[in-house]
Write a structure and sequence with these properties.
Blueprint: H1 6-24, H2 32-44, H3 48-66, H4 71-86, H5 90-108, H6 116-128, H7 132-150, H8 158-170, H9 174-194
């Protein structure tokens, strides 16, 4: 799929699904991965109908087996948002990611590092929708988790700081944005001096 050889990938993913059905049964959550693979492949070929069909099926299997507030459901929701990202339909991706983030917060608490993938996608949605009033607090939440996980001066926080500064400038909060931009320069300078 990464090489865009969709014909071969399609055959392999369908084989993966068939073998999984034979081994685990037609209603097993073990079918989620093959279904999500097929869904992603359809999405990258801009076949939204097929993508959503495969991804909805994976979501239904995860909900039925693990319940509505499970890691598998959160992952399925992120996968369901991907076709909307590809089609630049971020407004449709937002409710899926809000639900995924809520599941993560329920399972791991508000500062759980496990929430990083879904929260990152949600913040990206707000950036792309040009909703700085939602992007700034989202980026702030993401930043707190990243700092807890990696430290306050780790270069990994720079992209989040950059997005947060952009959102704050859009909100007219220029002083706060300037402080963040100065912090970015300091982190980058320190990182360069260590190399």
């Amino acid at each position: 799929m990464g090489l865009q050889n969709f014909t071969e990938a399609d055959a392999l993913f369908h084989r993966q699904l068939k073998v999984s059905e034979e081994v685990y049964g037609a209603q097993s959550p073990m079918l989620s991965d093959p279904l999500q693979n097929l869904g992603m492949m359809a999405a990258y070929q801009h076949d939204s109908v097929a993508a959503q069909s495969y991804l909805n099926h994976a979501l239904e299997l995860n909900e039925k087996t693990y319940g509505e507030n499970s890691p598998g459901v959160a992952t399925s929701l992120r996968m369901m948002a991907t076709p909307y990202f590809i089609e630049n339909d971020f407004a449709k991706a937002e409710p899926l990611m809000l639900r995924a983030v809520k599941i993560d917060q329920t399972l791991y608490g508000p500062d759980g590092a496990e929430a990083l993938p879904n929260l990152t996608v949600l913040c990206s949605i707000y950036d792309r929708l040009a909703k700085p009033e939602k992007a700034a607090p989202c980026q702030g939440h993401l930043l707190a988790i990243l700092e807890k996980q990696y430290g306050t001066d780790n270069p990994i926080v720079v992209p989040t700081l950059t997005s947060q500064a952009t959102a704050l400038r859009a909100l007219g909060r220029n002083e706060e944005a300037a402080k963040i931009e100065q912090r970015i320069k300091s982190i980058q300078s320190t990182a360069m001096n260590q190399n």
